[in-house]
Design brief:
4 helices, transmembrane, elongated, 0% strand, mainly alpha, mitochondrion
Amino acid sequence: FELNKMNYVLQFINSPVGPKTTHFWGPVANWGFVGAGILDANKPIEKVSPNMTCVLFVYSTMFMRFAWRVQPRNLLLFSCHFSNCWAQAYMMQRLLRHRLNEGKAPKAV
């Protein structure tokens, strides 16, 4: 049973998408975008850049397609960009709500 586990690990290490390739380390590095997007969810909305949020959303959308089409298919990269799209979509939703509600807040007396 242990030999099977070791063979599986060695197969992964030497595979076309294993840790010896950019198919592995590229997505690992890109998870930083997702982490930053999640951490930005706690920032005051005034400190969030609408331009950067839109750029990151478009970037991740394009690279989701790339990750799906490239051979061998890179599901780690796809999941990273899919997660980043959700994080950036949430930020765009926050920005839009803030813009729509600007000036509607009750004024202090």
